[in-house]
Amino acid sequence: MIFILGLIIFFGVHGLTAFARGARAGLLKRFGEAGYKGIYSLASLAGFALIVIGWSAAPTTPLYSPPYWLRHVAYLLVLLAFISLASAYLPAGRIKAALKHPMLAGVKLWAFGHLLANGDVRSVLLFGAFLAYAVADRIAVKRRGEPTPAAGPFRNDAIAVIVGVVGWFAVYMFLHPYIAGVALR
Predict the structure, then answer these.
(1) Residue 118 to residues 63, 88, 107: CA-CA distances in angstroms?
(2) Which positions ≥6 away from 168 have C-beta within 8 Å?
(3) Are 154 and 66 part of one and the same domain?
(4) What confidence score (pLDDT) does residue 126 get?
(5) What is the CA radius of gyration of the chain?
(6) pTM tops 0.85
(7) Is 62 helix (H, G, I), strand (E, B) or coil?
(8) From CA 130, how far away is CA 76, in angstroms rounded?
(9) Number of other residues whose CB lies within 10 A of the CB of residue 85
(10) Which whole-number Å values give the CA distances from 1 to 4, 61, 133, 158, in the listed order?
(11) Of 152, 138, 84, residue with least CA distance to 113
């Protein structure tokens, strides 16, 4: 139940400001920018903490058995997700311009890759929720008409690829057991 509560809080906070028209503006007006960011961050962090705490206690009831080779597809998709996430937070290159919203693209790739490789109920709930949210938020961003970043120089793409590959490698080789409790090698 802690796991489910964490998902509800985390995606409830994110969904409120992403999909409820005027909710963000109303909260900004009521609490000011610093207050809004503080409350939003604390609520998001609380939801995320409950997800992490509840993950290990949630049952790993099998739902489907993915073939082993899908793990390799998942590794590739997650590598592309890391590159997308890096391009979201680094100076704009052609990757950022092409993806329009690379952070959400990265979340979609990460979640879909994990759904391909994990068939237990808790994984489907976690990664399915992230995938559904990222798809819905991308549609909401498009409807709001947010501007897309202009393409920058190729060197920015090279930096995003290097940072993404290094991040992926670190998680794959060393950090995944600490993040998810599962070794990948």
Answers:
(1) 9, 26, 16
(2) 78, 79, 82, 83
(3) yes
(4) 97
(5) 18
(6) yes
(7) strand
(8) 18
(9) 23
(10) 5, 15, 20, 43
(11) 84
Domain hosting residue 22, numbered range? 1-58
Together in a domain, 49 and 129: no
Q: Domain total for the chain? A: 2
Q: What is the pLDDT of residues 17-67, one digit of tens each?
A: 777 777 878 888 889 989 988 999 999 999 999 999 999 889 889 999 999
Q: Which two tokens stand for residue 168?
A: 């992926």
Return the number of other C-beta atoms located less than 10 Å from residue 129's C-beta.
17
Dihedral angle sign, alpha carbons of residues 30, 33, 39, 40: positive
Task: Please give the structure tokens belonging to residue 31.
Answer: 């609490």
Cα 63 to its chain centre, rounded Å, is 23
Are the beta carbons of 52 and 60 closer than 8 angstroms? Answer: no
Residues facing residue 120 across a β-bridge: 62
